[in-house]
């Protein structure tokens, strides 16, 4: 699409740290929106839930089902709030770039943060690190590290490679789907604006844009679910003794 990212370089101890200010902005916006959603939906809770309380209870029940399908609740219950937070954060992040984008000159400021591989790979890395942390915490370091050598010791290199591949696939799957959707939306939007066919060209590009936005909402929802599901699968493998 020809847009550049707003980069900021920070010199620290002789090294250059490069920050994408657009992604930093959008991650912050996503966090604020999720916080507001959680605050508004959990205010004035009642025994007989109303509309907004029904929704947040459905989210909790939905994530509880994800956890129960992968591990026993006496172990998985502690990850309930983590799963809910992940689901809401990734869903909101996936949706932000769908209605519009904000471009200043050739610099893209408003987009889905999950259309940046740095963001999605950071999320996947944090989740994989958390699986190791809770694996050691809940099973003990001895039992946990022994599991890498089971059923035979020469499986250790393959299991180490699996950790890196799980991190990459978890992050890149999310990035690829969201980025591809935004690229196509940008191309359809540009076609509607620059078409030489006037109103006919605008209508011809507008209809596919609306259809693709609807499909992108579906894809963004599914990708949020898949990320949470796989995160809980990885977690169950690390904290359960039978894996």
If you had to describe this structure to a student in words, what would you say it looks like?
Helix 5 (117-139) runs antiparallel to helix 7. The protein is built from eight helices and four strands, in the order ββααααββαααα. With 243 residues, the chain is mainly α. A hairpin with a 2-residue loop joins strand 1 and strand 2 (15-20). The chain has helices at 21-41, 51-68, 73-76, 80-95, 117-139, 141-146, 156-194, 198-239; strands at residues 7-12, 15-20, 102-104, 107-110. It starts with 6 loop residues before the first strand and ends with a helix. Strands 1-2 form a two-stranded antiparallel sheet.
Q: Please give the count of helices.
A: 8
Assign a percent range to the helix content: 55-70%
Derived from helix and strand composition plus strand pairing, the structural class reads mainly alpha
Task: Give the percentage of residues in beta strands.
Answer: 5-15%
Mean pLDDT: 84
Strand order of the main beta sheet, please?
1-2
| Count of individual beta strands | 4
The residue ranges in which pLDDT falls below 50 over 5 or more consecutive positions are: none
Give me the strand/helix succession.
Answer: EEHHHHEEHHHH
Instruction: Please summarize the sheet with the most strands.
Output: 2 strands, antiparallel
Judging from the principal axes of the Cα atoms, what is the shape? globular
**How many whole angstroms does the radius of gyration measure?**
21 Å
C-alpha end-to-end distance: 45 Å
């Amino acid at each position: 699409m020809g847009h550049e990212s707003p980069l900021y370089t920070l010199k620290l101890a002789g090294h250059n740290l490069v920050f994408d200010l657009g992604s930093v902005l959008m991650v912050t916006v996503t966090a604020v929106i999720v916080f507001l959603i959680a605050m508004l939906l959990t205010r004035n809770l009642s025994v007989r839930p109303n509309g907004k309380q029904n929704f947040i209870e459905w989210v909790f029940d939905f994530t509880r089902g994800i956890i129960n399908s992968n591990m026993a609740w006496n172990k998985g219950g502690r990850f309930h709030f983590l799963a809910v937070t992940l689901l809401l954060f990734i869903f909101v992040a996936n949706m932000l770039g769908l209605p519009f984008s904000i471009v200043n000159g050739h610099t893209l400021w408003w987009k889905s943060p999950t259309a940046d591989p740095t963001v999605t790979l950071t999320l996947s890395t944090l989740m994989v690190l958390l699986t190791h942390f809770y694996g050691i915490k809940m099973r003990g370091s001895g039992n946990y590290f022994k599991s890498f050598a089971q059923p035979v010791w020469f499986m250790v290199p393959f299991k180490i490679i699996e950790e890196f591949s799980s991190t990459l696939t978890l992050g890149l799957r999310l990035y690829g789907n969201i980025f591809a959707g935004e690229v196509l939306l940008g191309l359809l939007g540009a076609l509607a604006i620059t078409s030489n066919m006037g109103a006919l060209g605008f209508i011809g590009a507008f209809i596919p844009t609306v259809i693709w936005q609807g499909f992108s909402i579906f894809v963004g929802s599914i990708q949020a679910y898949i990320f949470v599901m796989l995160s809980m699968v990885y977690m169950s493998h690390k904290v359960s003794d039978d894996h």
